[in-house]
């Protein structure tokens, strides 16, 4: 059907069957990640376990390096993002980005990492059609 590698993005709750977080859950996961990064060193245990900490830190550090962000700039961004989360009434990550476009790039990375991890954790052997 497809002649080149293709990614299909599904929405409207369809991905929930695969334990992929929906908008409000994704927002909560990202808030936890940001709070963890502000309150702990990378050696500290992530609320969702060491595997998530290792995976997210490794991939995130590659993005930080590519963007040439200093640790001070990154910490400042996380502090501003955390403050924006606290002041926001949004329960949707999409709407939060719409209201806070300055954070769009870093949030896209955090969204991607959380989605990758949730699919990594999913037990696809439970699906009868695979």
Question: What do you see in this structure?
Answer:
The chain is mostly helical. 59% of the residues lie in helices and 0% in strands. It has 5 helices and no strands. Helix 1 packs across helix 3 (71-87), helix 1 (23-39) packs across helix 5 (104-121) and helix 2 packs antiparallel against helix 5 (104-121). The protein is globular, with a radius of gyration of 16 Å. It starts with 22 loop residues before the first helix and ends in a 9-residue tail after the last helix. 14% of the residues are buried. The mean pLDDT is 76.
Helix content: 55-70%
Question: What is the number of helices?
Answer: 5
> Describe the biggest sheet?
none
Overall pLDDT confidence: 76
Poorly predicted regions: none
State the end-to-end distance.
18 Å
Shape: globular
Radius of gyration: 16 Å
Helix/strand/pairing category: mainly alpha
Please state roughly what percent of the residues sit in beta strands, choosing from under 5%, 5-15%, 15-25%, 25-35%, 35-45% or over 45%: under 5%
Number of strands: 0
* N-to-C series of helices and strands: HHHHH
Summarize the SSE layout with pairings.
Elements: H1 23-39, H2 50-67, H3 71-87, H4 93-99, H5 104-121
Summary, kept brief:
The chain is mainly α and 130 residues long. The protein is built from 5 helices and no strands.
Q: Could you name the key traits of this structure?
A:
130 residues; mainly alpha; 0% strand; single chain; globular; 5 helices
